[in-house]
Amino acid sequence: MIVYWGKNNNTKHECADMIDFTDFMPTFAEAMNIKVPKQWDIDGQSFLPQIKGEKGKYREWVFCHYDSRFNASASKNAKQFFRDMRYKLYSNGNFYDTIKDPKETNPIAKGKGNAEAEKSRRKLERLFANIPAWKVGDPAIPMCILPEFPLLQTPKNISLEQILHSY
Fold this sequence. Notes:
By secondary structure, the protein is α+β, with helices and mostly antiparallel strands. The chain has four helices and four strands. Strands 1-2-3-4 form a four-stranded antiparallel sheet, covered by helices on one side.
């Protein structure tokens, strides 16, 4: 990532810390000296210290949910994964060493990785256990529209347009 921050632009430096899309909002808030309300219960953490060339809070893992669909039809390319600096675990159980296998062509079977790999797999599996179960083809049903609205238990027969127009 390249960051240009006006008069606060710093000398060139590199940082290998992982960041997640959820980290942008708390980073922008910190840069503007704005507190993110606790009731928003966000997952992100600011990476402003890293932008400034300082040591920041190290992120041990990132989560990604990718679904290219913009309607209710299923996308064959939809994916969910957790990853750390080296290993990546998909929701379907495929597990990869992203350093030795960056193109993800050789999944590591459960119990067949080295001690470091299996420790990482267990950590990433525990993270998956904390989120709702999902599989490719599940309907796109938002659980929350904006942080200030209560969690929605949306019926499956309601469209996203109907939900958005109800606010």
